[in-house]
Design brief:
The complex is a heterodimer of chains A (77) and B (156). In chain A, 23% of the residues lie in helices and 32% in strands. In chain A, strands 2-1-7-4-5 form a five-stranded mixed sheet, with no helix packed on it. In chain A, strands 3-6 form a two-stranded antiparallel ribbon. Chain A has helices at residues 8-14, 28-38, and strands at 2-5, 18-21, 25-27, 48-51, 54-55, 61-63, 67-71. The chains are: A alpha+beta (77), B alpha+beta (156).
Chain lengths: 77, 156
């Protein structure tokens, strides 16, 4: 089970702060494809992806109990 | 307030408390940057802002910025607090304090910190105007550098 977090406008589009994917292992790219399929209006490709609070590449692997976060362009400061 | 050097809070930020965290006998300068909520942006009037953050990761990324600063300016001490939640015009959103032995480095490191916050720290601002609202993003209009260092153009 992989947990996915959404923030800011992504949270509003999904309607929730988090969801779970019932898979034991996926690549980051597969997670993105899953989300695009489930939420066609979600701007997945504009977001950076973090796994367990570190930014990752599309080819990295996500395992069960990992926490994936979609990080849309930031605007702090 | 917290003793943490790198903090996300939903409370009013005390500038003095952030500054106190970098006081050191070897420091000859403490540079303080205070980011506040501006009313007018490109002719549009902001009523208030709302900040959201991935708090645990944001504190880690602020700490990473502190590490990057200490690589570049080894004698620097850094503390950063960023507020989230609803902020009104003139409220303080972020305070960065940097102490260094000599003043020039304190300015440079402080500037580095705020530019880096706008690249890698997962904090988001929602503008509320009289006629609408919008989550803001990509203020730099550049692709962020997730792991690398910003180049000179980002600091100028």
């Amino acid at each position: 089970m992989i947990k996915v977090l959404f923030f800011a406008e992504l949270e509003e589009i999904v309607g929730s702060r988090e969801l779970t994917i019932e898979k034991a292992e996926l690549t980051v790219n597969e997670v993105k494809e899953y989300l695009k399929d489930k939420f066609p209006t979600l701007p997945v490709d504009r977001a950076m992806i973090a796994v367990n609070e570190e930014y990752v590449e599309d080819t990295d692997v996500v395992k069960s109990d990992d926490i994936v976060a979609l990080v849309p362009p930031v605007s702090g400061g | 307030m917290s003793e943490k050097l790198f903090l996300i809070t939903d409370e009013v930020i005390s500038i003095q408390e952030v500054v106190d965290k970098v006081v050191h006998p070897n420091a000859g300068a403490i540079n303080t940057f205070i980011g506040t909520v501006r009313e007018m942006t490109k002719g549009k009037k902001t009523i208030y802002l709302k900040y959201d953050a991935y708090v645990s990761m944001a504190e880690k990324k602020l700490a990473q910025i502190g590490d990057e600063i200490q690589e570049r300016w080894p004698d620097a001490l850094v503390a950063i607090t960023h507020r989230i939640g609803r902020l009104d015009i003139t409220d303080i959103a972020v305070v960065i304090a940097v102490s260094t032995p000599h003043r020039a480095d304190s300015y440079d490191a402080s500037r580095y910190a705020i530019e880096r916050i706008k690249e890698i720290v997962p904090i988001w601002k929602k503008e509320h105007w009289e006629d609408g609202e919008k989550w803001m993003g990509d203020q730099l209009e550049k692709t962020p550098y997730p792991t690398g260092k910003p180049e000179g153009e980002h600091l100028s």
